[in-house]
Amino acid sequence: MDIRNDMLRLLKGRRQGFSLEQPFYTDPDYFKLDMELIWYRDWLFIGHDCELPKPGSYITVQIGDYPVVLVRDQQGKINAFHNSCRHRGSRVCNTEKGTAAKLVCPYHQWTYELDGRLLFA
Fold first, then answer.
1. In which element (H, E) is residue 63 found?
2. Are residues 72 and 105 in the same domain?
3. Is residue 55 within 8 Å of residue 73, measured between CB atoms?
4. In this structure, what DSSP letter does residue 50 have?
């Protein structure tokens, strides 16, 4: 059965005041569809300006399957990137929050500017 039709059937049968059917919480296909149709299509709030008080301040979050880093650059602009080195996919920022002059991959020290430009490989 098509996952969307199955999901629609369960939603139509939903009773007010009761939780959703089990597949909404446990089925990996439902999760994948939710991520694709809802979470990956729209802007998401992942942090506030005050959490990045100075250049080099960063916070990390996980959005579905994607690790993301939010960082303030030298011009004061806030940038969001996949928290992953383009070389071997290692996480660049390993703590929930912090400050860094540059973003440096711990694996082979590939170094990125705070605006995302690759400086050294």
1. strand 57-63
2. yes
3. yes
4. G
Q: How much of the chain exceeds pLDDT 70, in percent?
A: 99
Q: Which two tokens stand for residue 35?
A: 């991520």
Read off the pLDDT of residues 56-101 as tens digits, 9 standing for 90 and up.
999 999 998 899 999 999 999 999 999 999 999 999 999 999 999 9
In total, how many domains does the chain have?
A: 2
Whether residues 107 and 58 share a domain: the answer is yes
Residue range(s) defining the domain that contains residue 19: 3-39
Instruction: Pinpoint the alpha helices (H) of the chain.
Output: 3-12, 23-26, 28-34
Specify whether 32 is located in the same domain as 54: no
Largest CA distance in the chain: 57
Given its phi and psi angles, is residue 102 left (phi above 0), alpha (psi -120 to 50 degrees) or beta? beta
| pTM for this model (two decimals) | 0.78
